[in-house]
Specification:
Rossmann fold; binds zinc ion; 6-stranded mixed beta sheet; single chain; alpha/beta
C-alpha cells in the first residue's frame, strides 16, 4: 500500500472516501475492491466508430456505472469525480496517446446550467485535466436550449433535436487536435453535431471520450 501524506490521512479521517459506485467507505482508495471487479468495463473494446469519428469510453452505461452517472448529473454528487477522471484519463491514454493537444467538453445551455448549478461534462473535463496538470479549453457554446435527448428515442429525431444548437469559439478551435469529453454516448447524435461544428470551424482532429457508452 502506498504511504499516505499526513494531509490525506487527516482528510480520510474527517471525510472518509466513499466508493462512487456503491457508496461504501472505501478506505482511502478511489474505488472499493468489489466495484473495481464488478464495474461494467468496455474491456478490450473501448473504441467505437461512428458519424462522430472515434469515441472511447471506459464503461458501459448499465448497473452501478449508470447509477453513479445519474447521481452525479441529477443530484450533484461530485464524490466520484476523481475516480471518473482516472478512468477517463487511462482510457484516453490507451486510445489516443499523443493524438490531441486540446481538451474540451460538450456544454449544456446557460438555462440548464442555471437550473442544475453546474455543467457535468465541464466538471468531467476539468477533473481529467487535473490528472494531466493542464486546463480544459472552452471551444463550444450551446446557443439553443433544446429538449433533453433523454426524452427522445428515434435516432433521426435525436439527430434533428441537436442540429444547430452548438456554436464553436473559433480562436480556440482552428488547427487544434481536440479531445471532446461528454458523460454518456447513446446514439452519438450530440457528439456528431459537436464534432461537425468543430471540424467546420477548422479543428485538425476531433476525438470523443465519454465516461459511459449506452450503444453496443
Ligand atoms: Zn464500490
Amino acid at each position: 500500500m502506498e504511504k499516505k501524506s499526513l494531509r490525506q490521512a487527516v482528510m480520510d479521517l474527517l471525510f472518509p472516501r466513499r466508493c462512487p459506485f456503491c457508496g461504501r467507505i472505501s478506505g482511502g482508495v478511489l474505488l472499493c475492491a468489489p466495484c473495481a471487479d464488478a464495474l461494467p468495463s468496455t474491456g478490450e473494446h473501448p473504441l467505437l466508430e461512428g458519424t462522430f469519428g472515434r469515441c472511447a469510453a471506459p464503461l458501459r452505461y448499465e448497473g452501478c456505472a449508470r447509477d453513479a452517472v445519474l447521481d452525479f448529473k441529477f443530484h450533484g454528487n461530485t464524490g466520484g469525480l476523481d475516480c471518473f477522471a482516472e478512468l477517463l484519463a487511462d482510457c484516453a491514454a490507451a486510445c489516443y496517446s499523443g493524438e490531441f493537444d486540446t481538451v474540451t467538453w460538450v456544454p449544456v445551455s446557460k438555462e440548464r446550467r442555471r437550473q442544475r448549478g453546474f455543467d457535468q461534462s465541464c466538471e468531467l473535463a476539468r477533473a481529467v485535466c487535473r490528472c494531466w496538470g493542464v486546463e480544459p479549453t472552452e471551444t463550444l457554446r450551446k446557443i439553443w436550449d433544446n429538449p433533453p435527448q433523454s426524452g427522445i428515442r428515434a435516432p433521426e429525431e435525436r439527430r434533428a433535436n441537436v442540429l444547430g444548437v452548438y456554436e464553436a469559439i473559433p480562436p480556440h478551435v482552428w488547427g487544434r487536435r481536440i479531445l471532446l469529453i461528454d458523460d454518456v454516448v447513446t446514439t452519438g447524435a450530440t457528439l456528431t453535431e459537436c464534432a461537425r461544428v468543430l471540424r467546420e470551424c477548422g479543428a485538425a482532429e476531433v476525438l470523443c471520450l465519454t465516461l459511459c457508452r449506452a450503444m453496443r
